[in-house]
Amino acid sequence: MENFWTTLLYAFISMFIIFNYGMVLGGVVYKIIARVHGRFGPPVWQPYINLVKVMGVRTAISHGIMFWLGPVFRFTGGIGLFLFMPVLFGVPWMQNFSFSGDLLLVIYFIFFGQLGMALGAAESGHPYSPMGIMRGLSQVTASEVPFALAVIALAAQHGTLSITEIVAAQQGGIANWNIVTNPVATLAGMMAFLGMMMHAPFNLHIAPQEIPIGPPTEYQSNFLSYMQANRAFFASAKLILFMNLFFGGATNIPVLVGKTFSLYMITVFIGVVNPRFTLENSIRWFIRIPTVTGIIAVLIYTF
Amino acid sequence: MIKRLFSFVLLTGLGFVFYYALTNITASRELTGVSAEYAERGAAELGAANLVTAIVVTYRGLDTLGEVSVLFLAATGIAVLLRRKKGYVQARSEDKRGSSEILKTGTDFLVPIIVMFGVYIFMNGHLTPGGGFQGGAVVASAVMLQFLSNPSYRLNHTVFGFIESMSGFFYVSIGILGIVLAGGFLDNRILPLGNFGSILSAGAIPVIYTLIGLKVGTELAGILDNMRRDA
Amino acid sequence: MVNPIYIIAVLLGIGFILPLTEKKLSKLGPWVFYAGMIFTALVSYQWFRFFIVSGGETYHIFTAGVKPPLSINLQIGLFESVLLFVTNLTGLAGAVYMTKQISETGVRAMVLLLLLLLGLNGLILTRDIFNLFVFMEITAISTYSLIGMDVKSRSLSAGFKYMTAGGLASAFLLLGIIIVYSLTGTLNLDGMIRSAEGIKNVKLLSIGSMMILFSFIIEAKQFPANGWALDVYEGTKPGVAGLISGIGTTAVFFGFYKIMPLFTNETLKIVMWAGLITFFFSNLMGMKQENVKRMLGYSSVAQTGLVISVSAWSFMLGNDKLIFPMIVLPLLFNHFFTKTGLFWIAGLVKKDTTGLWGSITENKILHGIFIILILALSGFPPFPGFWGKWNLVLAMSLDSNFFYIWVLLAGSLFEAAYLLKWAGITLKKDKSKDILEYNSYKMLALQIVVLIFFAVTVYYFMTGNFDHTNGGLHFYLPFALGTGLLLLPFIPEKLKGMISMSVIAVYAFYFLPDQNGIGRFFNAMFLSGGFFLTFATLNRKDRSRSFYPLLMLMLGSLIALVNSDNILHFFFSWEIMTLSSYFLIHRGKGSAEESFRYVMFSLAGAFLMLLGFAYSFPNLNGQMSFGIFAVPGQFTSLSFILISIGFLVKSAALGLHLWIAGSYAKAEDDTSAFLSALLSKAGIFGFVMLLLAMGAPSAGKFDLAYILSWIGALTALIGTMMAIYEEDAKRLLAYSSMGQVGYIILGLAIMSGLGWTAALFQMVNHFLIKGILFLAIAGVIYRTGTSEMYKMGGLIKKMPWSFTAVMFGIIAISGVPPLTGFGAKWLMYEALIEKGWYLQTGMAFFASTVAFLYCFRLIHAIFLGQPKTEFRNVKEAPAWFLIPQYVFIMAIFFFSIFPRVLIDRISAAVEPFFGKSLTWDGNTVISSLGYWNATAVMTIVGVVFVVLAIGLFIKLPKVQKVKQFNIVFAAERPETPELTHFAYEFFRPYRRAMGWMVRPYATRFWRSVTESAYTVSDALRKIYTGNGQTYIFHILLVLVILFYISTGVK
Amino acid sequence: MNIIFLIGFALMITGFWGMLTQKNMIKIILGLAIVETGVQLIMVAFGFIEGRTAPILDSAVPVKKAVEMIVDPVPQALVLTAIVIGVAVNALALTFIIKMYQKKKSLNITEYRDLKW
Amino acid sequence: MTMIGEENKNEKKNFDTELFCDAVPKEVPRINGIIQKFYDWAQANSLWILAFGTGCGSIEMRPLYTARYDISRFGMAPRPTPRQSNLFIISGYASVKTLKRIVRSYEQMQNPKFVMGLGSCTVNGGMYWDSYNTINRLDHYIPVDTYVAGCMPRPEALIAGFEDLKKRIKEGRAEGANEYAKNFEWYKANQKKVIKDWDMPDYNW
């Protein structure tokens, strides 16, 4: 951080890029899902419209201070997560504030927004909110296990927990990517990724017919706008994280777009063709196959 | 039955223990240790012809004092156990049939003789076999004869109690006198040793034995009386 | 100097003359009686002073004016004088105690007592074996009579059984005496012992000594030839039973002790083991006992067995001169006074069953005495029993007799079990208000005995191996504070709390700056934690006077623990801490069972720790510094394991955690904070000391540190897992505490600079967080009156400050950046990965994510969701609770922004042992694997958060505030808050999926252990059928068995 | 080996048998008395020396030759004490039995099992 | 804990003011200018339907999401919570019982909110015009922006209705929420006239 203001400026630029990228990505995904269904689908800029719409809502109700702060927590979590990650390898203006901490910081910061959001949603007093949170949190705990194991395997492999260094070690062609050099860990990580994206089939926490939309049942108007904007950051931040960890990172924006988009497509396609798991099912699944894979990945480096 | 079997097995085991002991006992041929010393010094030192008495009353006088206390304790214990609650009226003994004339006369005749015999035994304890305990027991047997022959016989508790207490007390006092006047507690040499073999010899031994005899006699009599009244 | 023979003479003289006063001089009798008693006490005091103060030489008394062996001689030396004094004083007290009974029975009861005393004095004084027999008979017969004195069927039958046994004993004694006499030609003990060595007929001698031995085994009530003794204790009036158990046993023991040199080493070995077996089995059988006097009887028998066992062993070693005052006397005194006192208390309470002893609380002094005696009997410091056992264990270890120590400690544990259970019952007042009859004579007698006991205790405490030069203050501090506060009678409790706080503050002020090294963190933590958490206790409304003394005792012992510089200090403080915390927990409502479980686990752990010490102790000759662990020896790894188990119990490691939830939950709410925030660190401190001194040895192929790491990781995971299913907030926090401490253990097990930094950082973190959380919950419970989370809800509106505190607490505890919890996690994972323990890392990670579940549940179920109608009017928690919480929160924020302040100091403390592990670049801490800039994280998060919050505020200047039922619904309106608040069995689906992890294996295991112990206990005690004949059978059986053991099976 | 020893031990065994098998308390005490008698017999036997006389120094036993002519006096002294003590204990025990009988009207020892375990 | 209904027995108000907010809705004026236009446009292009099948017509709504009709083209989507939806489709007859729920759900939606009456029943009662328990005119109870007549109207008709609604929104004429607030008394009176067991605050926030 040679110059604070430069860093800040760069951060704003990358945030701007990633926000739009995240929004468009969302739209594209809607479109793709619709096409898979054989529909025409909404326009790719539909997320923008939705965002503007919720911002234009005239009234809002609040259940209390924590309810009010929940989306703030959530959005801070999303932005923070993104800001703590180096986005493009070797590109100085896309390093954000990654000097703040290493991979562990990023992993743990994922929870910041979720926890804050959970608190806010829970204050609404709507029983569906804690129900959704319970489901979401439960599933996260299960899916974090293989992810953690994969990360540990990577750390063991590269002898570092710095994302930049992990990406650096993967430079120089696809043969150096972790998916090639450490396929087991990647497999475990990617299975965990399905759960972490909270996409179908692992989206019981929002189960619309059962507990309408889950945690954010009570959220509306501008609260919702924060959450929608956050989704752009959060989802892309997670994608970037996985890209950095397993797929060699990116050195320029097209590569970034390409890799993250393909990563996202994995979850989208799996989600589109799979029915929703019950909570027990998904937890058991995560604790079995992905975790065992993760343990194998770790054991490789233990002995 | 199983109990008897177990007992039998156990006692067989115990029998082997005793057998083991028995096979290892060797008969002694001569006096060893303290007994030899007693034999050598006893007569000269204490002036008692009966060495057993010398040992009992003086050398191991503390034992004997303890022995007296044991008996005293037993008597006290029995008295405590058989004590009567306040307001207890003793069953009248009229309904018991009196004993026959022959028995009464015989008893009256025998009792003084038995008492005399007892007194003789404890008076001569330092010379001949016998002593305070034996004599006392004999005296008590006279009382027992009275009890047996005469159901309505009453012991004079005041007198008996007084004799009992005072004889014990004097015994202890003589023991203390031993510290003051002679070599140690219960030393018999507070009185002159006298002529070896005569009745007034061996220092305080005859006195002590007399006291013991009185005490034992009264105590045993008291025990008998207590038991008789209660049973 | 009055010749001790006068004791005998005077007692006898008075005894003989007393019956004369029966009728006419009945006023005079008692005067003479008490005069005689006082005379003996005075004479013995004179000798006592002569030997203790002037250090006089042993004095011989010859009777009959002839030298031994011809005559009987008495001897009074140091030990005799001590025993004599204690016996006569207690005898006097006993006479006072039985005043009423004596006056009812009449003058003859006085005679019995006098002669009992005579017999006991004789037993202690005499040096002639036959004389010993006579005095034993005097003792026995007076005891029989005293037993039968109340002429009840029970006491009569007990006395009868006693007499048959006593008759057998005397028969065998006579047989033995005559055999030994026939071989040695003397009856004088010294002469016998002298000439016994040259005897040719060894077999006969061994039979003779065997007979004597056997007789004493019966008289000393050794297992299993002791059924009658238990009946006697049960059937007799407590006054007499106390005398039998106290002075009677002591004198008989001393007689036995005098004869012991006569025995060969093989025989002594038998005595030693027989005594130990008695100790073990009697205590085991005592566990099932509910009859107070019989239970005391079992304990009495056990203690006698132990004392005899130790004495026999001391003669085997040929080291009796040293062992007697160091081990035997403390054990004996401990037994003597406590048993006398307890029996006498039983005579005041007049309840046979332990369950009915609630009425003792009517009399505070009596109750206090009772508790103290129970503790002394259980072997807790600072009472003599502790010193005796401590010295015994270490001495045994020097003799490499470890099996003995195992059995000894097992027996002690059983004993503590039934005693503490009993004490626990009395601490809980029962509903039936029995009036406690107040008897001033009995109280007086009791107080005499207890006062002597205190004197003895103080003596042993003052002379008990403490090195006063170095940090001695710490060890007196807890007691000084505790008793000081207890004795401040009339000041209000609040003032006491403030005094406590100021004492802590002053202490910290003068003491902390001089500290360095790892101990400083513990000191600082305990002192600051103690200060602020005590602040919360100022809110207390109840008038109970024991709280602050106990609290200060606990804090003081924690400080003493940290500053102990040898294993004795350590163990001493450890026990005090266990004890004080036990009582603190016990104060909670309905906590009897839980606190009992706590103290049993703790005690078992402490005993294992003691065993560990013992295994290491021989390594360095007689030194007690922690250095003994550094010296590798034969048992290094075993020692490590045992000590570790002790610490693991305190840290509630998996499998040893059964106590934690219950005791944290049932303790009073402000106390729980102390337990979790401070007390749970004691085990950690133990590990720090242990690992520093010992490193991490390996047992065979296994690296113990590696195993420890798995224990830590599993504890972290399973503790957390159990926390999420709890409905009770405090139980939840208790399990959370268990999990968090698991992390600390994991960190310590890494045995690297980074690992230890992580562990200590986590420790400080946990201390702050649990302080906050428990206090916040305490505040909530204080207002709502319930700790069931699902019964609350929506309290955020009523208690926003508590909510905020809990929120920061859970953010910190779950390890989410930017608060300190993340720092701990970061350090921990870096250290683990650096070490190469990847699986443990994964498990720790899993645990930390699972922690979110309970964190959320805690805050949701209490503060969020639907407020309940009944809690509509609750107020914010009192400021007493809130202020410490916010102090801690400020500390958390400070450490979150500037973790360097803490990490630098921790690293500096850890560096001497492991070298440098972290480097700094400005505010960025750099490890070998990664980096972390807490200041930057905090700044970024803070700025983003504030900007977004402002943004939202600008966009939404006015929002409609709605109420709890203004939630989305279409069909039926929410019916009641209870039905709308989703909190009960919150994680049920999770349980369906992951419940297999928390199956109560440990509970089942420990339940089966305790149940089988009780079953064995119950089955075993059935040998005491109550039939006198069976007892005769036992006695003869023991004889035969002993004989065959000693001579070898033919 | 002396026949008296044998008789003494036999008496002891007999007494034990009585104590172990008889339910009547008086008989048990009698058994104890028999045991004691056996012990006393053994004690005296230990002092006995073949061909010697009683330790009374009269005309038959001159003081100077006492050492060679008398049996051991000590066991006799001890026995004296032992007998008295035995008597005392037995008397007390019988008193206990009397009181017990008064309470329960039974002499059977198995009836007195209120205290157990 | 109070049982259902029991809590209201002796109180004057038939609901607990501690549990329910009893504030009255307020009119929120439109901000004149380009921003409002922009918002209107966004509202029109992002209609989230409150997924509440109030009547038989709900069966006609399902095909809208299918490949054949696919209203997601217009940025429309079902939304399970009234808080986030801005289009309430009353799909057919509204019985008195359902009306209560309709009113609640409507009131729980946030201000720019639009109502579409589906089928003749909502216009004038349709075939249930003389039923004892069906209301006849929906707009007596809540403001309706668009009616789609028919019994039942086909999805195509619905789409046409959406287009009409979108036009109204863009023109700024779909101010049902403000209208409701303005004539709150009147609407409430109408509602209470038919709904006898009124146990709620007047406005369900």
Question: What this model shows, in words?
Answer:
The complex is a heteropentamer of chains A (303), B (231), C (1050), D (117) and E (205). Chain A is mostly helical and 303 residues long. Chain A has one domain (4-302). Helices cover 70% and strands 1% of the residues of chain A. Chain A is globular, with a radius of gyration of 19 Å. Chain B has one domain (50-82, 98-230). Chain C is elongated, with a radius of gyration of 32 Å. In chain C, 72% of the residues lie in helices and 2% in strands. The mean pLDDT of chain C is 87. The interface between A and C is large, with 83 and 73 residues. β1 of chain A pairs parallel with β8 of chain C.
The DSSP helix count of chain D reads 4
Domains of chain A (count): 1
Largest sheet of chain D: none
Task: Sum up the overall morphology of chain A in one term.
Answer: globular
Average pLDDT of chain A, rounded to a whole number, is 88
Return Rg of chain D in Å. Answer: 20 Å
Mean pLDDT of chain D: 88
| Distance from first to last alpha carbon of chain D | 44 Å
What's the CATH architecture name of chain D?
Answer: Orthogonal Bundle
Low-confidence stretches of chain A: none
Into which percentage range does the β-strand content of chain A fall? under 5%
How many strands appear in the DSSP assignment of chain D?
0
The biggest beta sheet of chain A is recorded as: none
According to DSSP, the number of beta strands of chain A is 1
What is the SS-derived class of chain A? mainly alpha
CATH class term of chain D: Mainly Alpha
Tag the structure with descriptive keywords.
heteropentamer; B: mainly alpha; 69% helix; 0% strand; globular; E: 205 residues; alpha/beta; Rossmann fold; three-stranded parallel sheet; two-stranded parallel ribbon; 5 strands; 33% helix
Structure summary:
The complex is a heteropentamer of chains A (303), B (231), C (1050), D (117) and E (205). With 303 residues, chain A is mainly α. Chain A has helices spanning 4-37, 46-55, 65-83, 103-123, 128-158, 163-169, 178-181, 183-196, 221-246, 253-273, 279-302, and one strand at 61-62.
Secondary structure blueprint with pairings:
The complex is a heteropentamer of chains A (303), B (231), C (1050), D (117) and E (205).
Chain A lengths: L3 H34 L8 H10 L5 E2 L2 H19 L19 H21 L4 H31 L4 H7 L8 H4 L1 H14 L24 H26 L6 H21 L5 H24 L1
Helix pairs in contact in A: 1-9, 1-10, 2-9, 3-4, 3-9, 4-5, 5-8, 5-11, 6-9, 8-9, 8-11, 9-10
Chain D lengths: L2 H19 L3 H23 L18 H4 L3 H32 L13
Helix pairs in contact in D: 1-2, 2-4
Chain E lengths: L33 H12 L2 E3 L7 H4 L15 E3 L7 E5 L4 H13 L5 E5 L1 H5 L21 E3 L6 H16 L5 H7 L1 H11 L11
Helix pairs in contact in E: 1-5
